[in-house]
Design a protein that fits this description.
Number of strands: 12
Helix content: 25-40%
Distance between the termini: 20 Å
Shape: globular
Order of helices and strands: EHEHEHHEHEEEEEHEEHEH
CATH topology of one domain: Rossmann fold
Number of helices: 8
Radius of gyration: 17 Å
Strand content: 15-25%
CATH superfamily of one domain: NAD(P)-binding Rossmann-like Domain
Largest sheet: 6 strands, parallel
Amino acid sequence: MCSTILITGAAGKLGSAVLSLMPEGIGATRADFDLSNAAQMDAFLDKHPGITTILHCAAMISPPKINEDIAQAIQSNIIGTSLLAAACYKRDIRLVYISTDYVFAGEKGMYKEQDELLPQNKYAWSKLGGECAVQMLDNYVIIRLSFGPDIFPYKAAFTDQYTSRESATVIAKKIKNIVVSDFKGVIHIGGTRKSVYEYALSLGAENIDKISIKDMSVKMPTDTSLDCSLYEQQFNQD
């Protein structure tokens, strides 16, 4: 699939990791592609008619910060994604949306793409709101995942929360595989099921304290690990 790709959130950890693998891509900044400004986005896309795919990585992702500023989360994650989806619809641009494993209830783990969606915190609801807008399109991809920095950034990690999380560098390679393909629909990517503490150790972290999600002020899911067999069947690599 030959295309010119625009990446939102290209200055962030995940967006920059993908852009480094796709030098032909265009890294969008808020200065010239503000997701809250539909007219500006339209003008940018009109000036770049060769764009056929947009990888939407930009988002407000901190659950505690979202709880402190609900209005901004609605604007960034729901309204901004909706305006972007509308711009893509008008031009038949393929929209690849980065979602989260937190859209699931987080009780049973190993979630498949078609499993029931039931967010447990406001961050997850805001990302599901973005998914709803994207699914209004015919030409879309929703990628559910969990990622972190290549070096574990915290002094403690949950022993009782399970995930399929991988580092931004590893996840970026899988995102690229999807973006440059002709895949459409919903797909999960990630690694094997593991606790966040085990994930930290897998990155080489040392002297990490063990903590519990019960100690958090924000409700946290127990097990949002993902069944990534569709990705493995479709791409059979990594």
